[in-house]
Amino acid sequence: MSHRGPVLKRRTALKLGALASLGLSIGIAPGFALGAGGQSSMPLQKKQLGFLYDQSKCIGCRSCESACKVANKWEQGAQWRRVLSSGDGPNKVYLSISCNHCARPACVSVCPVSAYQKRPEDGIVVHSPEKCVGCGYCLYACPYHAPQYSTQTERISKCHFCYKLQQAGKTPACVAACPVKALTYGDLNELLQTPGAVQQVNRLPDPTLTGSSLVIIPKTKALGK
Amino acid sequence: MKGWGWFIAIYLFLGGVGAGAYLTSLAAEKGLLGHVPQLKRLGYIISAPIVASGAALLILDLGQGKREPWLLFRLLSNPHSVMSWGTGILSVFIALGLVRGYLAWRQQSAPDWLGYAGGVFAVATAVYTGLLLAAIRAVPFWHNYVLPILFMISALSTGMSATTFLAHFLAREHGHQDNVCLAHVILVGAELVVLSIFFGMISAGMMGPVAAESGAMIMFDQFSLVFWLCLVGIGLVGPLALYVRQYLQSSRIHAAGMAAALDTALASGLDNEATGLVLEQPLASPREPRYMCACDAAVLIGGLSLRCLFVFAALPVWSGLLG
Question: Between 20 and 30 A from A116 (CA), which of A102, A198, B233, B288?
Answer without folding.
Answer: A198
